[in-house]
């Protein structure tokens, strides 16, 4: 099933039992034109996506959207205990997708669509945070003044302009930067005076004194090369 998220179709909720081919929706690659599709608003929540999952019971969903849209879909699969049952393919709407870069996915939409149809899904780590979200591409802690550990490795002590985190096959990583040591592990824990967190392009609504990204106990099924 194709989920076109945002994509100029916000508010055009289809009857779940009457999902139509992707050709009826805007900006869908030709390879996905015949795939049953549902239009959802950006960053779909429980009320948007859960009824679709309950009625359609898809074995594979193709998410056409941005990184935050993919993260929102994964949150719903996590909440419904479907991470191990539903394969996920991603067709990014931006060639600058950090999620595509993190997981080695095509940034070209036509190539991503072809992979979504014919590719094989494999388990990859799901990186969560302690605010109830997930990280699929790039996380940033801005204006950090404090400490950060990746497992037992001290990656930041003091003040740094930005700490960047990415998910990957090894779990969660801190990215080398000014004042930041690169490391990969199961958890990246930050304690600070107060910092701004941006997850997959979406800024957290409050300044935080602490933040944790960590590998969930269950992987998700990603269609990738």
Describe the overall structure.
The chain is α+β, with helices and mostly antiparallel strands and 225 residues long. The protein contains 4 helices and 16 strands. Strands 7, 8, 9, 10, 11, 12, 13, 14 and 15 form a 9-stranded antiparallel β-sheet that branches. Strands 2-3-1-4-5-16-6 form a 7-stranded mixed β-sheet, sandwiched between helices. The longest helix is centred in the first third of the chain and has 13 residues, at 67-79. The protein is elongated. Mean pLDDT is 91; it is low at 8-19 and 22-26.
Beta strand count: 16
Rg over C-alpha atoms, rounded to the nearest angstrom: 18 Å
Percent in strands: 35-45%
Share of residues in helices? 10-25%
Reading the helices and strands in chain order gives EEEHEHEHHEEEEEEEEEEE
